Hints:
alpha/beta, Rossmann fold, 2 domains
Amino acid sequence: MTILFFSRLFYPRIGGVEKHVLEISKLLVKKGHLVTVLTEKFERGLLDIDEIGGIKILRIDNGKDNWFKKFRAWRNLWKYRQLIKDADVIHAHDVFFWYLPFRFLYPSKKIFTTFHGYEGNKIPGFKSKLMHKIAEKLSKGNICVGDFLKKWYGTRPDYVTYGAVEVSSIKYRVLSINKNKLKFLFLGRLEKETGIMDYLSALKILEKKRYKFNLIVLGDGSLRKKAEDFCLENQIDVHFMGFIKDINQYIGNSDFVFVSRYLGILEALVLKKFIFAHYNNKIKEDYLKMSPFSKFISISKNSEELVKQINVFLKDKEKKNQMVGGGFNWVISQTWKEVLKVYSKLWRLN
């Protein structure tokens, strides 16, 4: 079977959607399917036509994010209309609008959609909800990454998933570490929605309480300079590492993980780490609290609440260990093979 994925960003970029598409594509290739990922060229130097592990990658340059971008995307896709014609299954990861005019040119073509998340730190407005509803109505079926999408976008999913991990592939080496300090790890982009400044403000409070700790930050973003200046000013022991492809060794050698995105949470749960997740608006609160793993992590809305939660779980190790154990028992069944089964059911593959 010939499968065409649309994904705004893809490997080698690091991110949840990028990894989701990559892992599903790898499994499909192993099963003998022909997989092509059509994606944006997000940095110079990347090949327009590429391949990784049997996955064909086509990169298009849609230009700057503005009102005309969708027209440039449609123009670029017109060049690949034969690829669209030949595909048995077309599946859009959030960017259904790329395919919108082709939906009417090829009305019998099977098109599906996966809705992965929400718009940064914004509460969905009318336009966002409308685009989700159009994609839902014009798709043959859809997958929602998270139950919160039903509430906030009115989407009626055929299936709901939260991503996956592979327990057998989790390997890490023990680093040389200072056992006299608590070891915190932050995973995610350095943006308002991930709560980086609230996590740092909590550590500032812990510093005043004379806790000994260090923090490693794996990620980058528009708030990096602000975060670095905050740490220097408040003499917080923090190491900013940028984006790291192999994060397992850092997760494995931490005591607590600060993370609030599904894939990062799953990757920490499978390594039996206790997680502090942050939200700063109602949709992010539901994103976390409506998940099946919410009872296995600490969820807080600001730095003061986060400090209280850290104190609770530092003192109550039995409760912490119970939650960590429960999280691990849940996550070990969340494999990419199970997610592929969802796609296979949606596409009605034999």
